[in-house]
Design brief:
Layout: H1 8-17, E1 24-29, H2 33-39, H3 49-63, E2 69-72, H4 78-83, E3 92-96, E4 103-105, E5 108-110, H5 119-124, E6 129-135, H6 142-161, E7 165-170, H7 183-187, H8 189-201, E8 207-210, H9 222-235, E9 240-243, H10 249-261, E10 266-269, H11 271-274, H12 282-307
Parallel strand pairs: 1-2, 1-10, 2-3, 3-6, 6-7, 7-8, 8-9, 9-10
Antiparallel strand pairs: 4-5
Helix pairs in contact: 3-12, 8-9, 9-10, 10-12
Length: about 325
Amino acid sequence: MNKPPLSIGKIRGLSSTCNQEGIFTILALDHRQSFLKMINPGHVESVDYNTVVDVKSQVVRLLGSHSSAVLLDPIYGAAQAISNGACPGSLGLIVAVEESGYTGSEIARESSLLTGWSVAKAKRMGADAVKLLIYYHPDTGELAESQEGFVSEIVDDCSRADIPLFLEAVSYSHVPGVSKTSPEFARGLPDLISEIARRLGALHPEVLKLEFPVNPKVNADIAYWRRACERVTESASCPWAVLSGGVEFEVFTQQVEAACKAGASGYIAGRAVWQEAISLLYGLREAWLVDAGARRLKLLNEIASLHAAPWQSYYPDLPDSVKEDWYLNYPV
């Protein structure tokens, strides 16, 4: 299926979220309920709004300069980091639009838009791109079709707002009694992530944010990892970036290298970079982020810049995308 040409607003948005080589080196900090648990494990009820805003802003302020963009939520992060200066204009900004968590059962998950929020609002507040997370399994019949319909609605919203969409797909087990961490689920993971890339890429998001297609605790063969990532690249009809999914940093560096060597356009990293710092007191957290956090991002950036495929390589017709008098037909 031919993908539509990139509009000028989407080109600008993608250019604002990558580094000078066209690689995504993105810091993810759009976590919500899970973030509260990290701040004060066991006492989530004692974590107030201002504390969450302060911690997120501190992480963005200290690590943002090592990233091409930052991914934030609208509840605690995006507007707050803009207003307090943690996210300067030189740092790309991606804003999440989905409701946290899912409705339905554990084996039949459905995603939704955050109440009171929209793609249009994200565009108006200055976002360079939006991110939509959906829980998705292609073998769930009508539910999978419903999730795809939801994605198509957001794709249309992004077209109207002329802003790029980073589509994140989180897989799950749809078989009762089979855990996502089980060897049984792991055996089918390469096929699953490849099929997710094919099905959701056909809906025309600008970037896919995907799980690593191998469970490293079940299969540690780097050559196998590389082949699995190559299949994802072959299946996706748009650039893809690998997400960290909370794995240990050392594992994630290997995953980023394997994915980028296989055609990924970079990484979007959250907990693998900063999770140890969140429960620390302010001064200790600052020291950890300035030292360990910065070193982690610098290493990931070196790996991605050396091996990743620029996102522009997926859109070879960019130089011809703007015609004479283009502004006359640009939608209002």
